[in-house]
TrEMBL record:
This is Arginine transporter. It comes from Limimaricola litoreus.
Length: 98
């Protein structure tokens, strides 16, 4: 139920031109990827707010600028728990923010 309420809030904010802002949103907008826009990046930030801690968001935001960092993190020792949470975030953002 919390997820549905969160998604409804995101859609309402997006319709008003606003939305969640944070490290993921800023990195998404600055990343220069095709299709990235304020509405999409705000949606992705909203999912991040629901699934990642602030420090995890700052860590994941670096992946937008340097995708190799994501690969290094995935393969790194002691990062399995973070990587599981990051993948859950990425999968959910992909499903919700299309």
């Amino acid at each position: 139920m919390r997820i549905k309420i969160g998604i409804l809030a995101l859609l309402t904010l997006a319709a008003c031109g606003g939305g969640p802002s944070g490290p993921i949103s800023r990195a998404c907008e600055a990343g220069g990827r095709p299709g990235a826009n304020k509405m999409l990046c705000s949606c992705v930030q909203g999912v991040a707010d629901d699934t990642l801690s602030g420090s995890e968001q700052r860590r994941a935001a670096k992946f937008f600028k340097d995708p190799q960092k994501a690969q290094d993190t995935r393969q790194g020792d002691g990062t399995a728990a973070f990587w599981r949470r990051y993948r859950a975030f990425a999968d959910r953002a992909e499903a919700v923010c299309r």
